[in-house]
Amino acid sequence: MKIAFFSAKTYDKDFFNRHNQPYGFELQFWETHLGPHIVNAIDEDTDVVCAFVNDRLTAEVIAVLASKKVKVIAMRCAGFNNVDLEAAKTHNIRVCRVPAYSPEAVAEHAIAMLLTLNRKTHKAYNRVREQNFSLNGLLGFNLHGKTIGVIGTGKIGKAFCKIMLGFGCVVVAHDPFEDKELIIMGVRYLPLKALFSTSDVVSLHCPLTTENKYLINKDTVATMKPGVTIINTSRGQLLHTDDVITALKSGYVTYLGIDVYEQEEKLFFKDLSGSIIEDDKIQRLMSFPNVLVTGHQAFFTEDALSQIATITLNSINELVNGLEVSDPSVILA
Ligand code: NAI
């Protein structure tokens, strides 16, 4: 049984090879994205295509996969906006994904961003290596006692709330579905406006929808506490980049940590160190001393990659061999 992986990085090879041992599938790794430009090159004996967030599984691509008798498309991620599910159903190709993997990985990264921005450990690291032990410019604040506003208390937001409670923070939250366990633990649900006006830190953990696009914009920022810190590990378009740049320039927003960015598909997951980046917004953001940008790495832990590989290979095994699917939430088509 042959699986062709697209957008494969070294770590994909490592983790999938490691977790493939019980199955013994033939794994073929392609570094290129999957799209119309390459789909015809797929070997005729390929049973499964395993794809990632920036691969393009359009109707055209899926028709070619069907002509090559591909049986399963396995997304090794949660999102599936890049897969034409109707086309897959039409061609009788099954589609699966990894709906959840280690929410703590993302929650912990959000906290790493918050602590780095606040306590400036990235600056101290470089400074001390140059034998500069001055503390000027490294002043931070205690998280203990501060109010943290959490937007979205699903799997990741809930893990984030629990860690923040452990820090001794006051945790307020906004979500259409209140989590009873969090309320018992001391989290207070508030309308969005009240959350914005009381929070020292606002952290985004909701999905991007048509309703909440640019949730953080000049009008909502104006309702936040002056000096607010904003952390976004969810999706780039939750935050209006130009509006936040204006608020950073005026000093209204004190710190910004982003693991996601509106135009990230042109930048993230690539080594562009020898290139000229034409995107002026990301360049402006990276020029601020109080902004931390990471390249969609919040999920990137040993634990999460192991879970992604295990769940993906298990789903492929069940679908290709006609076994009962142990977790129906992995199935998209
Ligand atoms: P989840 O589905 O478990 O929870 C999402 C929560 O957000 C739900 O409780 C939902 O009711 C709530 N929600 C929906 N719309 C909302 C709104 N407008 N305002 C407030 N709450 C709202 O999802 P999970 O697993 O916690 O993931 C959250 C997001 O994290 C994902 O949608 C994704 O965008 C992002 N993510 C980022 C990763 C990274 O590496 N940076 C990796 C994985 C996910």
UniProtKB/TrEMBL annotation:
Gene3D superfamilies: NAD(P)-binding Rossmann-like Domain. Coiled coil: none annotated. The keyword NAD applies. One of its GO terms (molecular function) is NAD binding. Residues 111-298 form the D-isomer specific 2-hydroxyacid dehydrogenase NAD-binding domain. It comes from the Bacteria. Residues 4-323 form the D-isomer specific 2-hydroxyacid dehydrogenase catalytic domain. InterPro entries: D-isomer_2_OHA_DH_cat_dom, D-isomer_DH_CS, D-isomer_DH_CS1, D-isomer_DH_NAD-bd, D-LDH-like, NAD(P)-bd_dom_sf. The keyword Signal does not apply. Keywords: NAD, Oxidoreductase. Belongs to the D-isomer specific 2-hydroxyacid dehydrogenase family. PANTHER family: 2-HYDROXYACID DEHYDROGENASE HOMOLOG 1-RELATED. This is 2-hydroxyacid dehydrogenase. It comes from Pedobacter psychroterrae.
